[in-house]
Amino acid sequence: MDGPEGAQELAGVLAGLRERSGLSYQELGRRVFASSSTLHRYCNGKGTPGEYDVVVRIAKECGADADELNTLLRCWRAATGQGQDPGSASATVDLDPSPVVSTAVARVPVSAAPEDPATRRRPLVVRYVLAAVMALAVLCTAVASAPYEAATAAMAAPLGSTSWAKTPTPVDPELFGVTMNSSSGAMPSFRTGALRLWDSETRWAQVEPTRGQYDWSTLDRLLNGAERAGLPTLFVFGGTPAWAAPNGRKAAYPDGSRAAPPDDLDDWDAFVRALVRRAGARIDAYELWVMANHDHHYNGSVTTLVEMTRRASRIIREEDTDATVVCPSITELWTTEAHEYLLRFAELGGYQYCDAAGIKLYQRRVTDPPETMLEAVRNVDRTFHLAGYHLPLWSTGTTQNLPLNDPLDEETAADHAVRFYLTGLYARNRDLERMYFYAWGNGKIPLVLQAEGQPPTKAALFVARLQQWLADADLRSCGHGPEIALPENVWQCEFLIPDERDTPRTARIRWTHTGNADTRAGAGAERAEYLDSSARDIGNRDMVRVTERPVLIRYSGRG
């Protein structure tokens, strides 16, 4: 079923979803940023979306479930001629990207990982689709064209920047998290929303250096400090003690901890229970392992990791019914192997034991725009659809190989820090709920918020200012470029923010991923505010210069 027949089946599924939803073409078009005539062509088979992202946006607005999304993926691939049977586990996918990017053909090998039987049991088409999705994400891009730019840059727009709108939802202060790279108990002196304990001398091997003998001193200092500051805390499991896995591979730390799981999972149970009982309500959430797909942190089987997840989840929920259980975090999301790992964990039932899924969002290079993280979020969303799960996402850190003593310049660091969290807000349409910046306390990493014992950097002060802007705000849409009638390099999120009379007023934050652009403020515009605390009054006809440093525009009405 290729070509016209595939397009007709795709159209039939889309039409059925739209009719079931009760949405008119006009209303559905408003929600997915497409014209009603375009949607009508998609639903009668006279047109086929060029990107699967468009199909997903339409389907989600119509309430499609995981099975329906899988059916749509199959139909879309058939309709666009990208659905041939690879034939064997060593088949290759030939992808001819836009000539703007490259004229080369990439050959992506598809092979099952030998470590876990679940991979060999997975239908070949799922592995093929996954590899193709990842290859497309790497190779396909759009050319940035911004006719209204005051200064044009050649950098293409990052992938994954789907525009969206929905019923306004509160901006959770806990989105603005930081990982604690300190064991002293000192807390950030700038505004932040949540803490995560890792590289804070609280690994399992450090808390339980001998079986049954616990050193709670560092953990208590940190938790007491967080409690005084009123900050919710995420504890991260990792670093098996040497006594629990004496023959296991050493982890990436000098304390002798192991990347292997414990030889006896009863030791794991005992530690989890002792920790939760000691912490009580001082710990709000638990990340059940750090970087589970990185050999430096975990090199056991996925089957064992799922069993550890099941056991820990049961114990945590027995001891603290209010705690949030976050599944082991997955890193290197630019790679096919990471998504294969996620699928294996899902197939073995791991995600059924968790309230949220842990992922690591970061740029490929520290100098890349933060908006490039959206590509990884999009790919994770697709993989979860393949797996049949839908969980909130928590981004819990950075890459294993973070360069030290190679700082960004102060201005770039400040811009990137704010846009790290704005990118998290932009990804709310894919259920990203938390962003933990790495790290607080460390002064040697490329982007420093605050080194312990030092005042906050400009980056930290700008992040605090962003949180002040969004206190009590509701988020209702985010968009990028021509889809929302802005230049190609301009991004925008729209909020409802109460004024001094507690009346909700429209506010928009705009920024670019590269270069500058002059944009019209728009009807009802009253004031432009900047991260350095300066501001100016404006009118609806005034132009606002948008740069890589976000600007807030306030309006007189709800918009």
Task: Note down, in words, how this protein is organized.
The protein has 559 residues and is of the alpha/beta class. 33% of the residues lie in helices and 18% in strands. It contains 15 helices and 19 strands. It has helices at residues 4-21, 25-32, 36-44, 52-61, 66-79, 117-121, 124-139, 204-207, 217-229, 265-279, 302-319, 336-347, 373-387, 410-426, 458-470, and strands at residues 92-95, 106-109, 164-170, 176-180, 194-197, 233-236, 285-287, 324-330, 356-359, 393-395, 432-440, 474-480, 490-498, 504-512, 517-520, 525-530, 535-537, 543-546, 551-555. Strand 13 (490-498) and strand 14 (504-512) form a beta hairpin. The radius of gyration is 24 Å and the shape is globular. Mean pLDDT is 86; it is low at 83-129 and 131-154.
